[in-house]
């Protein structure tokens, strides 16, 4: 309210406060995924690179509480405001199509099985196996995984 002589004027505003969102200067938050995570990334290091509030990491078995645990494709990062979960994102570890947390020959084999339509994987795992970033799983991605396993790339 403010007064202009004998007249008092009052203005009302509706303000919508949106819950925080997970952000990162290092990783990419894209829809329901966090990408750009590399093999051997520890949970504690990962959390230090996220912004937005209290963020917890979950695996299939429940909440991860140790900072010395390596991230795997398929784990999830959840943002909490107080006791309420306001956002949950699936972690994609580049090259970890198996969800083991490692880039392995088994991952290259799985890429080839997906390419041959002998097996299907969830979207996050598909994204993890796309080593060249072209949006498709191809034999070249299996080759790049094997080169990484052999420490040639």
Q: How does the SSE layout of this entry go?
A:
Blueprint: E1 2-4, E2 7-9, E3 28-30, E4 33-37, H1 43-48, E5 54-59, E6 62-64, E7 76-81, E8 84-93, H2 105-115, H3 123-129, H4 139-149
Parallel strand pairs: 4-8
Antiparallel strand pairs: 1-2, 3-4, 5-6, 5-7, 7-8
Percentage of residues in helical conformation: 10-25%
Largest β sheet strand count, sense and barrel closure: 6 strands, mixed
Distance between the termini: 65 Å
Query: How confident is the prediction overall: mean pLDDT?
Result: 90
Care to give the gist of this entry?
The chain has 153 residues and is of the alpha+beta class. Helix content is 23%, strand content 25%.
Structure description:
This protein is an alpha+beta fold and 153 residues long. Helices cover 23% and strands 25% of the residues. It contains four helices and eight strands, in the order ββββαββββααα. The longest helix has 11 residues. The radius of gyration is 22 Å and the shape is elongated. The model has no long low-confidence stretch (mean pLDDT 90).
What distinguishing features does this structure have?
25% strand; alpha+beta; 153 residues; 4 helices; elongated
